Amino acid sequence: xxxxxxxxxxPESAGWAYSSLRVxxxxxxxxxxxxxxxxxxxxxxxxxxVAIEADxxxxxxxxxxxxxxxxxxxxxxxxxxxVTLRSESGGRFALCGARTEQSLPLHYGSAEEVPVELRGAGxxxxxxxxxxxPGALAASKIIACEVITPAGNWSSYPAHKxxxxxxxxxxxxxxxxxxxxxxPEGEQGFGFMRTSSSPGKDIELLEEVHDGDTVLVPYGWHxxxxxxxxxxxxxxxxxxxPSSERAWKISDHPDQAWVRNTWTDQAVDARLVGxx
Length: 276
Description:
six-stranded antiparallel sheet
């Protein structure tokens, strides 16, 4: 792991070509500098507020208390920039990246503009914050979103894949970064994530995940993510791939696709209703 980062996933360490994620913690009045190089980067506060200096400009991101407190301001930084983060409050900040050759200017996204979706129903209810998806944020390759899965619920379900380029599917590498809410006395939360082999691509993973864990999905059917009863689950998804089309197109696992049809007869989890 690179000094100063709690999470440091780059194409060179992951053994792939496009997606990256760094998470840095800053003390009050702390600062951090990043050279974007060949990566476009979304600066996303996980907790705390931050000022971004890049491309001869300065942006102020109001941030949030925690990932469970709702969407946040964010900044997009293009390739070839020296980025300085300065935080009077201190906090933790995700630097979501994708390797690209296209140069785009620095720009700001407000928390109020983040599209929030309630996906699924019943025990498969979750909240998706589409802060970095096509149509929500101008970018070259990166696709990113946040998911809140209430305690006891399942998300990334049905299991799905995006590991080949077809008319109905995108080829995308994906990073899952987890934060799990603690119990009432600070007990360590947990959940589970499953990834399994897709045609011609062997991978088998059933992982117990805790606060701060990261799971890489180079290919394969991935999901479900399961939040243990008593512990709300958050994860940040960062995706990118080789296509010139920036799109998230998926194929559902054939044994699980039917589950979507059951949602029409179920209510969305009441813990999520009204949080849009």
